[in-house]
Design brief:
Number of strands: 4
Structural class: mainly alpha
Strand content: 5-15%
Helix content: 55-70%
Shape: flat
Strand order of the largest sheet: 1-2
């Protein structure tokens, strides 16, 4: 993780493109490195996944930082899995992962256009047809092992529509899918 805390680790944006504020990114990565090396369990993989940074001119390239964050999140998740398995045992860990996967599958197996809560009238939410398409793909991954990567789930993006699906609810399920995928490793 040392190379990710150096300001030379990421290319900078130029022109009109904005990137992540370098000082904030460097500070976050330094804190993550310290927590990882100290085996501090206060910072978790889902905290890494939820990290957000201000956008500025001459900032770090978003794609490069996001890719680094994904690797760091995976490292934290692997450590969390190892700790949990040593404390609770492999059977309990697998059982908890199965239960979460079943909960996700139950939600995603609901009828199309009814898988998530809709936002109120005259508000924008995620496009229902796009979310349902991704939900079907995730359901097939969980049911039959259809090919799907963590990176595909992490980087999925939806357009907006009036009366679309509630963003927070969809994002929470996607985060849970990443958790399940990381737990099986």
């Amino acid at each position: 993780m040392t190379e990710l805390t150096s300001s030379a680790a990421f290319p900078k944006t130029s022109g009109r493109r904005k990137g992540y504020e370098p000082g904030v990114v460097d500070e976050f990565l330094s804190a993550a490195r310290t927590a990882f090396e100290a085996e501090d369990t206060k910072l978790r993989s889902d905290d890494i996944r939820a990290a957000a940074f201000p956008l500025v001119r001459d900032g770090y390239a978003v794609e490069a930082v996001d890719a680094a964050l994904a690797r760091i999140e995976d490292a934290f998740a692997q450590r969390e899995r190892a700790v949990a398995m040593s404390q609770r045992g492999a059977r309990a860990w697998v059982g908890a992962s199965r239960a979460l996967a079943q909960e996700i599958l139950d939600r995603l197996s609901r009828p199309a256009r009814r898988r998530f809560r809709r936002v109120s009238f005259l508000r924008f939410g995620y496009r229902v047809d796009e979310v349902d398409l991704v939900a079907g793909r995730i359901a097939r991954y969980l049911e039959s092992g259809e090919s799907l990567t963590i990176e595909q789930v992490r980087t999925v993006a939806f357009r907006m529509q009036l009366r679309g699906y509630d963003e927070a609810q969809v994002d929470a399920v996607l985060d849970s899918v990443v958790d399940v995928m990381q737990s099986v490793g």
